[in-house]
Specification:
Layout lengths: L1 H16 L6 H34 L23 H5 L8 E3 L19 E4 L11 E5 L23 E2 L2 E2 L1 E5 L3 H4 L8 E5 H21 L5 E8 L9 E8 L6 E7 L5 E3 L6 E3 L1
Antiparallel strand pairs: 1-10, 2-3, 3-8, 4-5, 6-7, 8-9, 9-10, 11-12
Helix pairs in contact: 1-2
């Protein structure tokens, strides 16, 4: 198209040069032909210009390689700690959280670094925080547990009906990790919270891990405090076996003991 336009304009120019030569009749014919070629060239050039600018300014073609990436997201899932802290015991010692779905992200379920445990630093009130682990046979203890000596916050123990009211409750159980007298892994839990409730889940996980060295469990435990209280209101536990759902839960256990009223501000108590 561009070559035809150029030829038309050159031919029109040549004819215009011939307007001064030839008879009067020939000059009129050359003028009409030159005008026609000139108009054709201008019209064609305008068409080409319009086409070019429509492709630049109009809608991009459907085959455009422009992609819309989702914004980066945090690879860490979180428990509803604030909401759990506001719950009051209503005669059900253990409830499910998030429809019992652990909710770990794909990144949190990775096993490429092998088994591990991590613990939060004690806060300004000396309280333990969230503990996380990727459990496997490799970190399960082979020696007997030694006596505990650390007193976690809210520790005002006494005997009730011949049994101790409180236990030094491990967040990541000793039988799962070998963690024992670690202040970052201990909270004050009632006898009921520690055993049978927490221990029932720990026993299930220990049984699963012992079946194969290839078994892994992603595990998280969070003591739940309300405000500046020193005795936890409860404990949130969630776990997921890697690759299948033999171990699969997300629960909240209230830190209560039948027949006893607890003062969560400091851990003192009285019989009902």
């Amino acid at each position: 198209m561009n070559n035809l336009i150029t030829f038309s304009l050159i031919l029109a120019g040549m004819l215009l040069l011939l307007l001064r030569k030839g008879t009067k009749r020939q000059r009129r014919a050359n003028r009409r032909l030159a005008t026609t070629l000139l108009l054709f060239g201008l019209a064609s050039g305008g068409y080409t210009y319009t086409q070019q600018h429509t492709s630049l300014l109009g809608t991009p073609p459907q085959s455009s390689s422009v992609s819309h990436k989702a914004p980066a997201t945090d690879d860490t899932s979180r428990q509803p700690v604030t909401q759990l802290a506001q719950l009051n015991y209503n005669n059900t010692a253990e409830i499910t959280v998030n429809n019992n779905e652990p909710g770990f992200t794909k990144a949190e379920l990775a096993t490429d670094k092998g088994p591990w445990t991590t613990f939060s630093n004690l806060d300004s009130l000396n309280r333990a925080g969230t503990a996380n682990a990727l459990l496997n046979q490799a970190i399960m203890p082979t020696a007997k547990r030694e006596p505990l000596t650390w007193n976690p916050t809210g520790w005002h123990n006494k005997k009730v009906h011949g049994e101790w009211l409180y236990n030094r409750s491990h967040l990541i159980g000793f039988q799962l990790s070998g963690e024992n007298n670690n202040p970052k892994n201990l909270m004050t839990g009632t006898r009921q919270l520690n055993s049978p409730l927490m221990q029932a889940h720990e026993d299930d996980m220990a049984h699963y891990l012992k079946q194969s060295r290839q078994h892994f469990i992603r595990y998280e435990v969070t003591p739940i405090f309300r405000g500046d209280e020193l005795l936890p209101r409860g404990v949130a536990m969630r776990a997921q076996s890697i690759g299948e759902n033999t171990i699969h839960f997300n629960v909240y256990i209230f830190n209560v003991q039948p027949g006893v009223t607890l003062n969560y501000a400091d851990g003192t108590s009285q019989l009902n």
